Structure formats: structure tokens, C-alpha cells
Amino acid sequence: MSHGSTTGTAFILSFLLLFTSIQCATTPNFVLLFADDFGWGDVGANWAETKETPNIDRLAASGIRFTDFHAAASACTPSRASLLTGRLGLRTGAVTNFNPLSQYGLPLNETTLAEVLKAAGYSTGMIGKWHLGINGLYHPNHRGFEFYYGLPYSNDMGCVDDPGYNLPMCLPCPKKSDATLRDLFQEEAAINCDRWSDAVPLFHNLDIIEQPADLDTLSNRYAQMADSFISNQTNDTPFFLYVAFAHMHVPQNHDPKYTNASTRKTIFADTLLEMDTTVGVILDSLRRNGFTNDTLVLFTGDNGPWEEKCDLSGSPGPYLGLWEKRHSNGSSCKTTTWEGGHREPGIVSWPGTIKPRVSNALVSTLDVLPTFGKLAGASLPAYRMFDGLDISHVLLNGSEKGHDFLVHPNSGGSGKIGNWDTLRKGDWKIKYQTGGRRSCNNSTPKEVRHDPPLLFNLKDDEQESEALDVTKEPYSQILAEMTKLLEELKESLAKDNTTITQYTNNPHVKPCCNEKSVVCRCTV
User: Fold this and answer.
1) What is the mean pLDDT of the chain?
2) Which one of 72, 405, 418, 438 has the fewest CB atoms closer than 10 angstroms to its CB?
3) Sign of the CA dihedral with 282 first, then 286, 292, and 296 last
């Protein structure tokens, strides 16, 4: 072989190696960690009073910690639907929660993040709470996830043997199959834990393997399953793992070894410590299997704390929604469009690729699908509008350019469910609806519609304590611009391919592994 041909071969090999390294660097693995009923202040990296999250704090130190990160809705199902589709509930139809009797789920013509990544060659797995419909083709195994292990809906949507901690408390599942529910449950409030009388099931792929699920050991098993999924991956195929924790939703159960193990020695803090330990197991599994530098990890939550649960509720940090407190003493967290309802911890780490920093960019869980899709080189679904943005420039290039504006949909607190009655633009926020949601004092304030809407400056008033006088400049002009923008956004729905979700209940489709048992009790 001549010297020239050797040089040419070496050049080609070098180019191929360079191309391969660039390709690998731009097609990372993805691990999406999604906490439940989680406050902005429930992470120590955000809020110094929180001491129970050393592993999440370690993740924050290795990547970008977003200060202005938002869930797409402030309740379970609509938030998760938007996370996996990049679209708000009025587009997908998923505006309120599904339940154990739901015949349908997230409409089948909506494409999930798992389906996008699977089509791009990714191995896909999910562990944890689904809450987007479990019957038939709505099951996660039919929505892009090749592997599934978890609860089909919230851990309070049925009874369990150890009811853990809730407010009010629920009685454990009955064990006598020949008795009626009313015979076994003596208190009306405990007959149907959160209205649903059957036991909470645990799925492994399409099969129910445990009913009622053992919530005391669930977090440990989630950690084991995540470790197993990661350990079974190879460098030949990128992977996507979505872990949707049961924590910090009620009932709060944890392994007994965590009792009084937290700094605060409270039920909430002990449970938070267990969840953080699970995060640590997942991060250590990535390291042990050599995937750390090839994996983008995102940690966030579905919505803010469930304030009416009192000591079992988390912390919104400084986002207290004081206007609501002063005028109605109602909740300003979960299901509301106060900041405490939807502003979440947002942490993204990809060691060696993302430089550690704090970002004030306005971003959302809506951005996960378009951003992951871009980084994976995947094709996004056509013929539909997305509310999310590709924020890869924020992650990789240090940009602070996030959303110019962001809609916060009604999620059950006040106003028609799913409607767009709250808009954020820059430092400004307008809000048409207040009230409607019970706080720890157990009183439910009446729903109030404000026209003109309330206007807040979040830069000067992060607690949303004082609505500005919109009869005066410059506030009247700001209000006029924002109300016009919101109306234009609503008009855009008419140009989109939107879906209507059917919220039909059918007792014949409930997850049940033993119809002869009064609560479907079985263990496989």
C-alpha cells in the first residue's frame, strides 16, 4: 500500500471516529425523574430549609438548576399528558384526572415522547405512576414503553393493607372476601379511599402482580427496577427511562428504616428522604454502568404541594400566593394557577456536555418532548401545534432565551377545567380566576372571576401578594397587551388538530386480578 493510500485511509478512519463521537454526543440517553405533588422548596438546592435531598442536590450541582421552571398543569393527569405530548390539555383533551373506572385515556391520536424516541431507535421503559388511562390500548405498553412497572394511577385511588399517612386517614383493605364493604368499613369517609373501593394494583407490563400494592416497599422496588433496566442497556442502543414516583402524593408510606431518619423527623421529611435515596440509586446505576456522561437526566415534578394535607404537604418555597391567603384563606398550591401550583424544581444534568449553572430562563415540562426529540435526532409528530419549545440552546449554549409567554391552564382550583385563564409574559402575570381550593384550614373559598384580571409583577412580588392597579399606567397598557395575547392564543386552537377526551366511567374495565374478592385482592 502506498504512503498516500495509508494517509487517506487514516483520514477516513479519523473522520468516521469523529463523526461517531459527534453522533453519540448528540444522541444521549434520557432519564426523566418525575416527583408527585412536589413543591419548589422541596429540594435543598432551591430552599435551604430542606435537608433531605442530598442526591437531588448533587444532581443540581452537576447541571443546570432552573429557577423559573413550570409544570404544564397543576394536577396529575393534565400535567403528565402535557409532559409526554408537549401540548396543553385543550389540545389533547386531557384536562382532568382519569380514575380506576376510566374506559379511555390519553387519546390514541396523540403521540407520546416514548413513541417519538422508540421510533428513533431508543429502548424505552417506564417505572411508576402512569395516570393516562390503563384500559386496553391506553396502557403504557401500548403508548411507546417497551417495559412498564408501576401504579396505573394515584396511590390514594383505592385501598391498601398499610394505609400509611393521609388526611383524613383511610382504613386498610378488608381481607374477608365474603363481607360487604359497608360491613368492613365502619366510617363513611373510609368506605372508598378517595371514592374508589378496590385495592390499588401494581402492574408489571400488562399483568397485575400485586393487588393491593405494598406501598411500604414500593420505592425500594422502583429503585431496583430502575437499576435493572439501566444495567440491561448497552452502548449500541440509546435508552429512555421515565420514573414517575409515588412520593410525595398521599398516602405517604415508606420503608420503616426511614422513620425519624430525616433531619426534621416528620412523616413528610422521612418520605422525601426515601425518594431522594431512590434518585441516588438511579444516579449510581448510571455511573456504575458507564452511562453518566452519555445520559441527560431531568428531575422535576407534576404540580405543587397538596396544601389541604397540612403537615403531609410540601413547600412552595417563597411562592406563597399571599393574595389568595389574604382574601380567602384558600390554597395557593396544587390545582391552582398561583406560582405554588405549577412552579417546580427543574434540574437538568449531562456531565461533560451541559455546564453547571443557574438559569432564570422561563421553561416548562411542555419543552421536554421537543427538546429530547431534537437531541435524539427524532422526527416530531406532524399536523399539530406544540406549546413546548426546543430549549437545547438553553441547555447546551448557555442561552437564557426560554418562553416569551406561558399559559397556565385551570386544573381544578377555579374556573372551567382546562381553560386558559392565567398567562405569564416576562415578569408579568395576569390571572382571571381565584378561590375554589381548600387549604389546611379545611374551608373551601368560593370561586371568583376577575374582569379585568389581576396583574402581578413576579420580579418584584414573587409571593403574589399585591395585585397592581390596572387603571394606571404602565399597568393598564401591560394588561391590554397581555389580554390581547391570551385571546390570540385561544383563537389558535381553532387552527389546530385538537382532541376531545372521553371521560366515561365503566366498572367493567377496572383493573382487577380477582373478581371474587371484595377489593380484587390477589398476589401473583
Assistant:
1) 92
2) 405
3) negative
* Peptide bond between residue 305 and the one before it cis (omega within 30 degrees of 0): no
End-to-end CA distance of the chain: 66
The pLDDT tens digits of the residues spanning 87-98 come to 999 999 999 999
Angle between helices 267-288 and 215-231 (to 10 degrees): 10
| DSSP label at residue 434 | E
Q: How far lies 139's CA from each of 236, 249, 423, in Å?
A: 28, 21, 33
As annotated, the active-site residues are 76, 131
Rounded distance between C-alpha atoms, residue 70 and residue 65, angstroms? 13
> Which residue, 137, 141, 92, 103, is CA-closest to 369?
92
Q: HSE, CB side, 13 Å, CA atoms: give it for residue 258.
A: 22
**Is 14 a residue whose pLDDT tops 50?**
no
Would you mind telling me the total number of residues written for the chain in this entry? 524
pTM of the model: 0.93
Q: What is the mean pLDDT of residues 335-354?
A: 98
Q: Which superfamily, per CATH, for 29-404+503-523?
A: Alkaline Phosphatase, subunit A (3.40.720.10)
| Contact present, 118 and 241 (Cβ < 8 Å) | no
425 by Cβ neighbours in 10 Å (0-12 / 13-18 / 19+) ranks as middle
Max Cα distance, the chain (Å)? 92
Q: Which of 117-126, 194-203, 449-458, 510-519 has the weakest average pLDDT?
A: 194-203
For the stretch 206-227, pLDDT in tens is 999 999 999 999 999 999 999 9
Interval 291-332: pLDDT, tens: 999 999 999 999 999 999 999 999 999 999 999 999 999 999
Average pLDDT over residues 172-201: 61
Provide the CB-side half-sphere exposure for 522 (13 A, CA).
Answer: 15
Distances in Å between the Cα of 130 and the Cα atoms of 152, 159, 194, 243, 485 are 5, 18, 18, 10, 34
Strand partners, 208: 203
